[in-house]
Design brief:
By secondary structure, the protein is an alpha/beta fold. 44% of the residues lie in helices and 20% in strands.
């Protein structure tokens, strides 16, 4: 069995050499690049199983590079970021990185994050995630085509937002706790990170709700969790009967 291949894109030469050595000591095969452009070229020649991607790169930065990596193939990406401001920007752009870690970081923490992301990526390849098509009012989710429509309008949802919406839709009208959402969508390793759910809920509401500040579809049940309520003419008609 060939070793897992990690591509490290980091412009700090000392950190690049140190991380490469540590990853190789952990039995990973490592390619390293000092720029996003070089990293993308390496990935084309030798596709990685996971990318460690610095955000603050010279030339093309990590945020822009992420979309290129996603366009090449579906490869999990962990952001490396030196400043909280960069992390906020990465989250705000909704680019869909699988995880992030802020510098300076503990090597054991990084290794644990790598293992978690690789496990999650393998599960998504091994198991059909969403077997059934769902309709909740005028919201329709087609997992085989990975599409979502609201009132006939097609939405473009990144994988994690799609999974979160599908989980809510699978129990429409019922409250799902933040704890359960973390376990079902992100995995047990994220149980101490409820802010991940809050951020993705905000993004979903911005795409689904007429007024995201007064949501009617994804409803917060204070101190309990969230539930998805049907909307649209059919739902309103059924409620009136």
């Amino acid at each position: 069995m060939s070793p897992i291949h990690i591509l490290l894109v980091e412009d700090d030469a000392l950190m690049r050499r140190s991380l490469t050595f540590s990853l190789e000591q952990a039995s990973y095969r490592v390619n390293a690049a000092a720029s996003a452009e070089d990293g993308l070229a390496l990935a084309q020649r030798d596709p990685p199983d996971l990318v460690l991607l610095d955000i603050g790169l010279p030339g093309m930065d990590g945020l822009e590079a992420l979309s290129h990596f996603q366009g090449q193939r579906s490869v999990p990406v962990i952001f490396l970021t030196a400043r909280r401001r960069e992390l906020d920007q990465a989250l705000g752009l909704e680019l869909g990185a699988d995880d992030y870690i802020t510098k300076p970081f503990d090597l054991e923490v990084l290794m644990a994050r790598i293992k978690t992301v690789l496990r999650r990526s393998q599960r998504s390849l091994d198991v059909p995630a969403h077997p059934a098509r769902l309709a909740v009012g005028d919201l329709e989710i087609n997992p085989s085509a990975h599409t979502v429509t609201v009132g006939g309008r097609l939405l473009d949802l990144p994988p994690r937002e799609f999974d979160l919406l599908y989980t809510l839709a699978s129990e429409a009208g019922h409250v799902i706790s933040v704890h359960d959402l973390l376990a079902r969508v992100w995995g047990a390793e994220y149980q101490d990170q409820p802010q991940v759910v809050y951020v993705h809920m905000r993004w979903l509401r911005e795409k689904l709700e007429e007024d995201p500040r007064r949501p009617r579809r994804i409803v917060t049940v204070r101190s309990v969790g969230y539930k998805l309520e049907p909307q649209g003419n059919d739902a309103q008609h059924a409620a009136a009967q």
